[in-house]
Write a structure and sequence with these properties.
Layout: H1 14-26, E1 28-33, H2 37-50, H3 61-66, H4 81-84, H5 90-93, H6 96-106, E2 111-120, H7 128-134, E3 139-141, E4 154-162, E5 175-181, E6 192-195, E7 209-212, E8 218-222, E9 228-232, E10 234-236, E11 242-247, E12 251-254, E13 263-271, H8 280-285, H9 313-320
Parallel strand pairs: 2-4
Antiparallel strand pairs: 1-11, 2-13, 3-4, 4-12, 5-11, 5-13, 6-10, 6-12, 7-8, 8-9
Helix pairs in contact: 1-6
């Protein structure tokens, strides 16, 4: 068995057919609260038993400046709290609706590329020096500023609209993201904003060319070849067990966490097995007008991995209403 656990087949389930159809049409499908809230609560308790969250996670300014590191600061094999919890997330991998939908989209034998815990950080945790340093950054992945022993989770403070293929140079768009809220997430808890239909332009270089259409929830999204599409932003909120799945070229992002608590979620990247028979993702990819892979995925970082662009579309546009 490669990747996620296999559940009993429920092929022909009309709910699964609807989820797949939404994926083919929008590049995104929302399962809603499909997972057991009690199982989510048990996993969350295990996480909190291993990790006390708060301002103590961060380096001092002097500690950071003594040895700034921007690369290799995210979870990795051997330093990944979700993996260290063993079978705590087995209820996700065995969920029959999710596994049947993945089987339809990716085919049999799909493979797990990555899984991890993601923590949205409230501003009250951040030291003043760090707030000044990251202001306006398009991607505030805070791993560089977190103490090394805590880098088994990805911590963020708002991330501009991006595609998950951003971290996969030269990889074909053969994978999807499965994202799960393990506790209730409201508009104040750094919910994800997604843009259904944005996958139609394929993989484009970050930061992306976006402009909000005044007075609406619509955005005009341009690629590097002069093409554009209009997309309506959707805010993903829900209770414990809420899950959504999207194509690697779907634009999504978050604003900073406005609550006084962390927002904890699970993120899985799941790919089609090389050489597998054609599946729904191949039908979707055949409709994409742009590239399905990029040799360079982003222009916001310098050679050392530090931010060199001060631009955050999602924060500026959504703050303006």
């Amino acid at each position: 068995m490669t990747g996620l656990a296999r559940a009993a087949s429920i092929d022909g389930d009309p709910a699964v057919a609807r989820y797949v159809e939404k994926f083919l049409r929008h590049g995104l499908t929302e399962f809603g609260p499909v997972l057991d809230p009690a199982a989510c609560e048990r996993l969350l308790a295990m996480v909190r038993d291993r990790r006390a969250f708060g301002p103590h996670l961060f380096l001092s300014e002097a500690e950071f400046l003594a040895d700034p590191q921007y690369k290799g600061v995210n979870p990795m094999p051997g330093r990944n709290l979700l993996e260290a919890l063993g079978s705590a997330d087995a209820f996700v991998e065995a969920n029959p609706t999710i596994s049947a939908t993945l089987r339809e989209i990716l085919g049999d034998g799909y493979v797990l590329l990555d899984k991890k815990l993601v923590c949205g950080v409230p501003e009250s945790w951040l030291p003043d020096w760090l707030v000044r340093r990251i202001e306006g950054n398009p991607v505030n992945n805070l791993g560089a500023y977190v103490r090394p022993e805590y880098r088994d989770i990805t911590y963020f403070y708002g991330i501009d609209f991006h595609q998950d293929i951003i971290d996969w140079k030269d990889r074909h768009a053969d994978f999807v993201t499965l994202y799960i809220y393990v506790h209730p997430v409201t508009a104040l808890d750094a919910p994800l904003y997604v843009m259904p239909g944005s996958h139609r332009l394929g993989a484009t270089i970050f930061p992306h060319k976006l402009e909000r259409i005044a007075g609406t929830d619509l955005w005009r999204y341009h690629d590097e070849r002069g093409r554009s599409v209009e997309c309506k932003q959707t805010m993903l909120v829900g209770g414990a067990g809420f899950a959504a799945l999207w194509h690697s070229a779907i634009l999504h992002g978050t604003q900073p966490d406005r609550a006084d608590r962390e927002r904890l979620s699970l993120r899985y990247l799941i790919a089609k097995l090389p050489g597998a028979a054609p599946a729904a993702i191949d039908r979707l990819n055949a409709t994409i007008e742009g590239s399905l892979s990029l040799s360079e995925t982003r222009q916001d970082l310098d050679a050392g991995g530090a931010a060199r662009i001060r631009q955050n579309t999602i924060n500026s546009a959504l703050a303006a209403g």
